[in-house]
Amino acid sequence: MALVACPRCSHNASDLAFKCSQCGSRLRKRKHSLGAWLLCGGALLGGLLILGMLGQLLVG
Ligand SMILES: [Zn+2]
């Protein structure tokens, strides 16, 4: 757990907190950005491709 400064009131809030306890400003941003999703999707797609290739190899 770490402390982050609220962008609005610079109150130190836990980075686990969704909102600043002082001013109610939203603290959390989506850390899993598009890049992370793309990476995840790419890995999934690659896995599926490999599985498909293996399946084809097994089936013959
Ligand atoms: Zn605040």
TrEMBL record:
The portions of this protein that span the membrane are 36-59
* This protein's UniProt keywords: Membrane, Transmembrane, Transmembrane helix
- Protein name according to UniProt: Zinc-ribbon domain-containing protein
